[in-house]
From TrEMBL:
It catalyses: a 2-hydroxy-3-methyl fatty acyl-CoA = a 2-methyl-branched fatty aldehyde + formyl-CoA; an (R)-2-hydroxy-long-chain-fatty acyl-CoA = a long-chain fatty aldehyde + formyl-CoA. Its cofactor is Mg(2+); thiamine diphosphate. SUPFAM superfamilies: DHS-like NAD/FAD-binding domain, Thiamin diphosphate-binding fold (THDP-binding). GO terms for molecular function: 2-hydroxyacyl-CoA lyase activity; metal ion binding. It is an enzyme of class 4 (lyase). This is 2-hydroxyacyl-CoA lyase. Residues 13-122 form the Thiamine pyrophosphate enzyme N-terminal TPP-binding domain. Catalyzes a carbon-carbon cleavage reaction; cleaves a 2-hydroxy-3-methylacyl-CoA into formyl-CoA and a 2-methyl-branched fatty aldehyde. InterPro entries: DHS-like_NAD/FAD-binding_dom, HACL1-like, THDP-binding, Thiamin_PyroP_enz_cen_dom, Thiamin_PyroP_enz_TPP-bd_dom, TPP-bd_CS, TPP_enzyme_TPP-bd. It comes from the Eukaryota. Belongs to the TPP enzyme family.
Length: 571
């Protein structure tokens, strides 16, 4: 009689992830999770192997934003788990769903100084919505489904699943494995069905519509939470039918096209300083929006805050707070407005003021952009990159933007006309996200080109992942703005260049004119060195057409930027 087929913990975890709908996993393999990666791939979950867990974690976080499903991060035990905390915490800070899965030491040897021993539940708890450990193989399917569900419920965020080495090596019969996965899937479905529906908020919807209707200077603020919620159709309808100007946060750009005539991006100070009612959708009133307080905002502004998290509403105490999914809430507001419609019209004083200010500022910017400045400042190459990206049409490339000056100036120059086509440092202002984001974007949206516009400092955090780009032949073009260091090399005043180490390079300096393109070439990708508009245009044209891994090393005048980008007051 043939022995019954058995399944080990690694195979069970891989199958459970696939059964729960996972399609991609990012990570670094090693003891004790190498087999888990292979087994997950065999079950249908594509594994993208990285060179560093931090980059893999940032990829998983961005994947959660782009797809609306949890990005998966796989790490080894101990130091691998610690490296993974960067992605886990970044996902939670940005309200993006992520599940980090780590191996850990044998349970029998815990507390005895085992290989890479760490209390990983304690380490991850401050950054995770849920942190759980499988203590036997039978726990794995249930905890996989539970953690994936927790990552997307309420305010999305990071979750953690710990699978000790001994559990990964335990075995159960094939039939029991199938039953455990089926039971876990059924329990997850039952839990989702029994989740209480958000309370009916008819009065809040009516108040919101009435406030907008009576406002003299209304404004719609679009956050990345609106992009995550796929609220673009509903918000565009709201803007088009009411004529209310809108202001996107950096990753809210494209929910309504930047080219829309009611965009207040180029009149931001006027819009937030003078609006009397602000409908804030999927954005927190944090540092990015000046906490919703004077002097940037009027002291009399009335906020209508739409957020998936009740605690956020309670913290900010808006005039009207609506807890719910951004798409559903805006659809309800649209329905309420439809019963008593209004439209400001292009000749409304508020709309005229916003459009005039925006037009004036755009003309000033375009006058600067029209100049070909060599050696490059930031504006000249950004204009050339903007035009090349726009020429790609639809589906628009996904732009990854990272750096101080590079990201700040790029936010004003680069145009997003489609949702979820801009990824940047996010709520935390995290540097090092660039190449991880690129890889996530390339696998989540395979029909789109991915274009990263990176400062040389930001690029350096994850530059080794260019090998990953080449290994998987991903359609990613990385443009490095090379200005010899952080902010632009040595910015010290004479009184700072003293003492026994005065001959050392400045803390902000890198090797001048570093050959970043040669690093890509070393792995078999395409590298370009550009110093003139013609060279940059040629490199962009060729690399965009090829849709293969490429690095364009764009030499920038080291004195072109400002220290800390636009955050000098923080430094």
């Amino acid at each position: 009689m043939a022995a019954a087929t058995t399944v080990d913990g690694s195979a069970l975890a891989g199958r459970a992830l696939a059964a729960a709908g996972a399609r991609h996993m990012f990570g670094v393999v090693g003891i004790p999770v190498t087999s888990l990666a292979s087994r997950a791939a065999a079950a249908g979950v594509r594994f993208l192997a990285f060179r560093n867990e931090q980059s893999a974690g940032y990829a998983a976080a961005a994947y959660g934003f782009l797809t609306g499903t949890p990005g998966l991060l796989l790490t080894v035990s101990g130091p691998g788990c610690v490296h993974g905390l960067a992605g886990l915490s970044h996902a939670t800070a940005n309200a993006w769903p992520l599940l980090m899965v780590s191996g850990s030491c044998d349970q029998a040897d815990a507390g005895r100084g085992d290989f890479q021993e760490l209390d990983q539940i304690a380490a991850t708890k401050p950054f995770a919505k849920l942190a759980v450990k499988a203590t036997t193989i039978a726990d794995i399917p249930r905890l996989v489904f539970q953690a994936l569900n927790a990552a997307v419920s309420g305010r999305p965020g990071g979750c953690y699943l710990d699978i000790p080495s001994d559990v990964l090596h335990q075995t159960i019969p094939e039939s029991e494995a199938a039953d455990l996965i089926a039971a876990a899937a059924a329990a997850a479905a039952d839990s989702a069905a029994s989740n209480p529906s958000p309370p009916k908020q008819n009065s809040s919807i009516e108040k919101a519509a009435d406030l907008l209707r009576r406002a003299q200077r209304p404004l719609v603020v679009i956050g990345k939470g609106a992009a995550y919620a796929r609220a673009e159709e509903a918000i565009r309808k709201l803007v088009d039918t009411t004529g209310i100007p809108f202001l996107p946060t950096p990753m809210g750009k494209g929910v309504v096209p930047d080219s829309h005539p009611l965009s207040a991006t180029a009149a931001r100070s006027l819009a937030i300083g003078q609006c009397d009612v602000a409908l804030v959708v999927g954005a927190r009133l944090n540092w990015l929006l000046h906490f919703g307080e004077p002097p940037k905002w009027s002291k009399d502004v009335k906020f209508i805050l739409v957020d998936v998290c009740e605690e956020e509403i309670e913290l900010r105490k808006p005039h009207v707070g609506i807890v719910g999914d951004a798409k559903k809430v805006i659809e309800l507001i649209n329905r309420e407005i439809k019963d008593d419609p209004f439209c400001l019209g292009r000749s409304h004083p508020w709309v005229e003021a916003i459009t005039k200010k925006a037009k004036d500022n755009v003309l000033k910017m375009e006058a600067q952009l029209a100049k070909d400045v060599v050696p490059f400042n930031f504006l000249t190459p950004l204009r050339i990159i903007r035009d090349a990206i726009l020429a790609e049409g639809s589906p628009a490339p996904i732009v990854v933007s990272e750096g101080a000056n590079t990201m700040d100036v790029g936010r004003a120059v680069l145009v997003q006309n489609e949702p979820r086509t801009r990824l940047d440092a996010g709520t935390w202002g995290t540097m090092g996200v660039g190449l991880g984001y690129c890889i996530a974007a390339a696998v989540a949206e395979p029909e789109r080109l991915v274009v990263a516009v990176e400062g040389d400092s930001g690029y350096g955090f994850s530059a080794m992942e260019v090998e990953t780009l080449v290994r998987y032949q991903l359609p990613v073009v990385v443009i490095v703005f090379n200005n010899n260091g952080v902010y632009g090399g040595d910015r010290r005043s004479p009184d700072e260049i003293t003492g026994p180490h005065k001959d050392d390079p400045a803390p902000t300096s890198f090797v001048p004119a570093a050959g970043y393109h040669k690093m890509m070439e070393a792995f078999g990708g395409k590298g370009y060195l550009v110093e003139t508009p013609e060279e940059l245009k040629s490199a962009l044209s060729e690399s965009f057409r090829a849709r293969k891994p490429a690095v364009i090393n764009c030499i920038i005048d080291p004195y072109a930027g400002a220290e800390s980008g636009r955050m000098q007051h923080k430094n």
